[in-house]
């Protein structure tokens, strides 16, 4: 009795999957997918098998090997949807210039527990309102005012790298460079010196952990569904790692709010071009811009937390990766390194 019931259940599941698979292949997405090269699309599973059980190093190699193998933008077909990996400028330009395709991919949903609905993940009216508040904080003209911080932090980075310059010991760039980027974004955008915070080391470690969890989820399409992610017990460890991160950002906001409110001079209008960026020598961090907007009830505490988490993560993870690639390339291309060195001398 048990065996026929089991056969029936499994048979029904397979039938449902096959019908779904058939239906998904009648869509525009599948027709578009066929215009691009890619691995063999297996019934029901599509290209899922290619992604399974890869660690971050294998994930990195997988993407690079695909780009080299297909010599063009290539597609994956997973869970009835097409994923287009754009490797050519021509196609990138079309997508980036499009006003039609502005909705973010499902992968951005995974960032939500970390950075909420901040600028990177939000859309529509919310995005526009936040963008209006924040754009002046990154006006080209204010960058020179942060040059001293960039120089101080760069000097510290060079001193750290110098300790390994004799080549006796290998250096793990990740932690050194990530630290550098995090310290710099904190001081420039938040107006807060990380050295003064005991919690900073924990923040860095936890951000790294969360980054690994995000990559793991991205590479495991069966975890895309929130309910499955929860059921398999992944949300608990993520929430645990996020606690100290959010605690840290909240304490930065609190500390900065105190000094912001203590300033006796009238607050600048962050939307005005005639504000502190241009008027005098005082630096005006991005967090102050948000606090000024809070004073005008344009954003609340949770909104500030979303943006601070967004900028802290976006502002250090990206630049750290760019710096690491640059260092590795310079190490591999000794003649270019020599030319850079001469130019700086
Ligand atoms: C090499 C360095 C960087 C790279 C390659 C990079 C790349 C990108 C890309 C491709 C996007 C568009 C993503 C999307 O809309 O889906 C983006 C958006 C964004 N980035 Fe960066 N970024 C870098 C540095 C930074 C820094 C230093 C900050 C903070 C100070 C930052 C903050 C943001 C924010 C807030 C958004 C969302 C903007 C919006 O939608 O209005 N990024 N970045």
From TrEMBL:
Transmembrane regions listed in the UniProt entry:
none
Signal peptide start and end residues = 1-15
Q: Which cofactor does it need?
A: heme
Molecular function via GO: heme binding; iron ion binding; monooxygenase activity; oxidoreductase activity, acting on paired donors, with incorporation or reduction of molecular oxygen
Among InterPro entries, the record links this protein to: Cyt_P450, Cyt_P450_sf, Cytochrome_P450_Monoox
* Keyword terms of this UniProt record: Heme, Iron, Metal-binding, Monooxygenase, Oxidoreductase, Signal
Q: State the Gene3D superfamilies in the record.
A: Cytochrome P450
What's one Pfam family the UniProt record gives for this protein?
Answer: p450
Which SUPFAM superfamilies does its entry note? Cytochrome P450
Q: Which family does it belong to?
A: Belongs to the cytochrome P450 family.
What PANTHER family does the annotation carry?
CYTOCHROME P450 4P1-RELATED, CYTOCHROME P450 FAMILY 4
What is the designated name of this protein? Cytochrome P450
Q: Which organism is it from?
A: Anopheles maculatus
């Amino acid at each position: 009795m048990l065996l026929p019931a089991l056969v029936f259940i499994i048979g029904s599941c397979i039938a449902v999957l096959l019908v779904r698979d058939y239906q998904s292949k009648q869509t525009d997405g599948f027709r578009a997918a066929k215009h691009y090269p890619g691995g063999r699309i297996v019934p029901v599973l599509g290209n899922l098998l290619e992604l399974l059980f890869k660690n971050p190093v294998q994930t990195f190699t997988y993407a690079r090997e695909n780009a080299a193998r297909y010599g063009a933008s290539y597609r994956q077909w997973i869970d009835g949807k097409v994923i287009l990996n754009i490797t050519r400028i021509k196609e990138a330009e079309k997508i980036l210039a499009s006003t039609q395709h502005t909705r973010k991919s499902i992968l951005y949903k995974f960032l939500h527990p970390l950075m909420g609905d901040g600028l990177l993940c939000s859309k529509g009216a919310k995005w526009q309102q936040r963008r209006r508040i924040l754009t002046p904080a990154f006006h080209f003209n204010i960058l020179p005012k942060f040059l001293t911080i960039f120089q101080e932090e760069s000097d510290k980075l060079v001193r750290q790298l110098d300790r390994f310059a004799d080549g006796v010991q290998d250096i793990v760039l990740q932690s050194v460079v990530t630290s550098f980027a995090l310290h710099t974004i904190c001081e420039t955008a938040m107006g807060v010196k990380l050295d003064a915070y005991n919690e900073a080391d924990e923040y860095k470690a936890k951000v790294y952990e969360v980054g690994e969890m995000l990559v793991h989820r991205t590479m495991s399409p069966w975890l895309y569904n929130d309910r499955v992610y929860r059921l398999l017990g992944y949300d608990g460890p993520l929430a645990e790692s996020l606690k100290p991160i959010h605690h840290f950002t909240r304490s930065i906001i609190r500390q900065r709010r105190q000094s912001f409110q203590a300033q006796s001079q009238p607050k600048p209008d962050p939307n005005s071009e005639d504000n502190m960026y241009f008027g005098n020598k005082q630096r005006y961090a991005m967090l102050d811009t948000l606090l000024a907007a809070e004073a005008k009830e344009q954003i609340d505490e949770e909104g500030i937390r979303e943006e601070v988490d967004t900028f802290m993560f976006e502002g250090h993870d990206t630049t750290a990766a760019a710096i690491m690639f640059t260092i590795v390339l310079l190490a591999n291309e000794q003649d270019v390194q020599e030319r850079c060195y001469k130019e700086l001398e």
